[in-house]
């Protein structure tokens, strides 16, 4: 084997020497490539590699001349070649040396900026310098050249600012921004190296002398040195948290604020491991001793957990939400116990990480900047986002909904904390913060039944200590939900304005309507004039207004006020956009008119499923009320051609026309089919059949007091059936006994007399009531021929065309046609056409009734108040 590696024998053949030369040349080439790529190896390792290469590539001690490929790899003068290789090897630098060179280059650029007074480049290089020095710190000490640079930079900045004050000169905008940036950062940055900077300024020459440790040669093999870690810093498995540079992080009470400062500065930056930061802060919370340390750690930890749900489409993880809820409760508990520590908006930030703040003479509180109400609002919003993303028909939604009770307790505790702050007049606690947290509490109770609110209140007061009490909602009111809602809303009426005040009004109206107090809810809605200003409010408040409007309409229906209910629900249900207006779903628009951004915003505004109003029940109530009003109206306009045709519900009319246009109609399958079949039966006079159709709708079981509602509907159908019969068959009668009508519709004779009298007084029926014989005497008018009927129809169409032309002309001429309209007698309102409508609500009154409109105050509600 020796002949392949070393040619020791002179009598060896030429072929063997060629093989030997070829192998040695290739060996030499590989070693040179390895030496160039391994830049971090020590000089001794490279020297040893070269010695091995020389030993393998040399022929003999006589120095015989090389042959073959070795002639192209090395020259005959091997000594000169070896010296060149040594120089090349010596020029290879380690990674640490390269970092030092980059640092020196950056320092040179900053010094050049001093000469040119170029603060823009100084600011950029200063940021770069601070990033570079992190990798070169040894045991918390920065390189001396860095200390010299930042000390000189601070002095130069102070000189520049002093010159600006004495002789102000207009500085370039870019340089001015750079100067301000350096001014803001250098004070905070130099605080971490203040000891070294002071040593440099005391004796710069002694400071810049190299230490003896730096002159010692580096060891051949760099071994990892493990620093001792305290028992608290280690995990149960024996692992320790390792920071930058491979050093274990020591968590001690003295180092808490430095760790928090590092975490706060890294928030929002890319490639930040948020989960790792949360773990570090959890360990900091374990070693925190003083109340100030615990408060600071808890506030930073809660904010870091909220960062996990900062995405637009993602909600906060469940385990982190529950952890944040517990930590916020712990924070409030500490603030309740430690009365001299308060978290308040507008407090000054404490910059000294070495020592915590202390109470000075004459001070009562240690003020910590922060906002408890912001934490409460964010926790509430994250729960709402989580409920939006969960399928409501699964058990997971029910389990998640159980977290609302502890959230309500946190909101209540936050309210009590702000009440205690407001007691001290020396503290400037903004009223807005208290209003916001009261509004959050109101948002969680206004849509709930009274029994559920009572349970929520009782559960909180059981957990709370006996010495706690609320000024706004005392403990004694916990068993009275009506008084609680009234107290919260009254407080917001008196102490807030704008959107919060309007939302409080809507919440109280919603609660009253939900608990069947229709007249109070109606009066509050009308007197608040919210229907005039609601378009100027935000979308969330508009959604609450729509929900309140619908709830008032359902309350009127439960009270038996059919006309009021239909007139109130017309604005929402008549549009065909119930899902969108109530924030219970996104309507699919034709031809893709909604952009992805708009669709995303719509989904974010959706209400959780447990707050929804049943849309099928809402449609059933609206169509039933429309049927009870439209069928008699159709009969009236069909028997009297001179009465101007009008519509109460276009949506209902459209459905009825579609149903009548079908060739074959099977048995009813859904709510809409039941109402349409009942409408046909009622129009034909079959009121019992119509009642059966309406009663067979299963959705009525979702309403409280189902039997009472069905009895009310049966009574309404009887009355409207009587009215429809009289409108339809009045031309064929001269007289009609009241007793006959009572037997046909199974109504009391007094009720029949009341209905007929009301129709006569409202000029809906051309008849007279003979109370002696108890008969209805019909007046026969002049029967119109077909030609006369067509002439009246043509006259109506011509009048409508004239009105349209005048309206168009007035818009184009900006109202200058008014005088022209008065001259030719066509100005103002023309008489004729529609005669008086029906009366007001079914409950009585002779107020003349108009057609139902889309305005909340223009129909029965307004008429009832004015009457």
TrEMBL record:
<keyword id="KW-0963">Cytoplasm</keyword>
<dbReference type="GO" id="GO:0001732">
    <property type="term" value="P:formation of cytoplasmic translation initiation complex"/>
</dbReference>
<feature type="compositionally biased region" description="Acidic residues">
    <location>
        <begin position="16"/>
        <end position="32"/>
    </location>
</feature>
<dbReference type="Pfam" id="PF26569">
    <property type="entry name" value="EIF3CL_C"/>
</dbReference>
<dbReference type="GO" id="GO:0033290">
    <property type="term" value="C:eukaryotic 48S preinitiation complex"/>
</dbReference>
<dbReference type="GO" id="GO:0003723">
    <property type="term" value="F:RNA binding"/>
</dbReference>
<comment type="subunit">
    <text>Component of the eukaryotic translation initiation factor 3 (eIF-3) complex.</text>
</comment>
<protein>
    <recommendedName>
        <fullName>Eukaryotic translation initiation factor 3 subunit C</fullName>
    </recommendedName>
</protein>
<keyword id="KW-0396">Initiation factor</keyword>
<keyword id="KW-0175">Coiled coil</keyword>
<feature type="compositionally biased region" description="Acidic residues">
    <location>
        <begin position="41"/>
        <end position="62"/>
    </location>
</feature>
<feature type="region of interest" description="Disordered">
    <location>
        <begin position="805"/>
        <end position="867"/>
    </location>
</feature>
<feature type="coiled-coil region">
    <location>
        <begin position="176"/>
        <end position="203"/>
    </location>
</feature>
<comment type="similarity">
    <text>Belongs to the eIF-3 subunit C family.</text>
</comment>
<dbReference type="Pfam" id="PF01399">
    <property type="entry name" value="PCI"/>
</dbReference>
<feature type="compositionally biased region" description="Polar residues">
    <location>
        <begin position="811"/>
        <end position="820"/>
    </location>
</feature>
<feature type="compositionally biased region" description="Basic and acidic residues">
    <location>
        <begin position="88"/>
        <end position="97"/>
    </location>
</feature>
<feature type="domain" description="PCI">
    <location>
        <begin position="609"/>
        <end position="783"/>
    </location>
</feature>
<keyword id="KW-0648">Protein biosynthesis</keyword>
<dbReference type="GO" id="GO:0003743">
    <property type="term" value="F:translation initiation factor activity"/>
</dbReference>
<comment type="function">
    <text>Component of the eukaryotic translation initiation factor 3 (eIF-3) complex, which is involved in protein synthesis of a specialized repertoire of mRNAs and, together with other initiation factors, stimulates binding of mRNA and methionyl-tRNAi to the 40S ribosome. The eIF-3 complex specifically targets and initiates translation of a subset of mRNAs involved in cell proliferation.</text>
</comment>
<dbReference type="GO" id="GO:0016282">
    <property type="term" value="C:eukaryotic 43S preinitiation complex"/>
</dbReference>
<feature type="compositionally biased region" description="Gly residues">
    <location>
        <begin position="828"/>
        <end position="843"/>
    </location>
</feature>
<dbReference type="InterPro" id="IPR036390">
    <property type="entry name" value="WH_DNA-bd_sf"/>
</dbReference>
<dbReference type="InterPro" id="IPR008905">
    <property type="entry name" value="EIF3C_N_dom"/>
</dbReference>
<dbReference type="InterPro" id="IPR000717">
    <property type="entry name" value="PCI_dom"/>
</dbReference>
<dbReference type="InterPro" id="IPR058999">
    <property type="entry name" value="EIF3CL_C"/>
</dbReference>
<dbReference type="InterPro" id="IPR027516">
    <property type="entry name" value="EIF3C"/>
</dbReference>
<feature type="region of interest" description="Disordered">
    <location>
        <begin position="1"/>
        <end position="97"/>
    </location>
</feature>
<feature type="compositionally biased region" description="Acidic residues">
    <location>
        <begin position="78"/>
        <end position="87"/>
    </location>
</feature>
<dbReference type="InterPro" id="IPR036388">
    <property type="entry name" value="WH-like_DNA-bd_sf"/>
</dbReference>
<dbReference type="GO" id="GO:0005852">
    <property type="term" value="C:eukaryotic translation initiation factor 3 complex"/>
</dbReference>
<dbReference type="Pfam" id="PF05470">
    <property type="entry name" value="eIF-3c_N"/>
</dbReference>
<dbReference type="GO" id="GO:0031369">
    <property type="term" value="F:translation initiation factor binding"/>
</dbReference>
